[in-house]
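Lay summary. Proteins are chains of building blocks that fold into shapes, and those shapes determine what they do. In this project we predict the shape from the chain. Here is one chain we studied, written as its sequence of building blocks.
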Amino acid sequence: MRKLVVSEWLALDGVFDSNTMDQWFHPFESDERAAYIQEGVLTSDIFLFGRVTYEMLAPIWSQAKNNEMGIVDKMNSMAKYVVSSEPLNIPWENTTRLQGNLLEEVSRLKQEPGQDIRIAGSATLVHSLMPSGLIDEYRFLVHPILMGNGKRFFKEGKGASRLQLIHTETLSKGVVLLCYQPNKPDTPVNTL
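And here is the predicted shape, written in a compact code that computers can read:
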């Protein structure tokens, strides 16, 4: 059975806006961070995207041919499922548009043998899956900068979701990896 892993890159205040990555993401580049990103892709065999994230990434990665960052060959060959009510305008090898019942489709993919299913970006998709109990893990790569404004991953009005911290790691330049699992109803909550 596969795990469904949400993998996000954020500024400390939750900004994950791709238009401002030159301010909150690129200045914190390091070999450690690159190795973490590479490992995440190499331990997955399905990407699940919302349409906006897919249409942002497809033109870049589908045209890369020199296995940049050690992940391009894997990204181009792995299955990609896109949740979209609209047709996809940008082709990317091994892409399928999910049009049926999202929860049933994701549950079916999780039941198949294989590596992790990875969601990157795609905040609207993640928010729609959170109440379903299908998400197994959240991995946040938090960068030490407060942007003050920009598109935030978590929006107001979504309600509380309790998470259990399962792993932390400090990378160079102050970047922190925070890994959480959703609290199961019978899991005691550690309150410090």
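What the prediction tells us: The longest helix spans residues 31-42.
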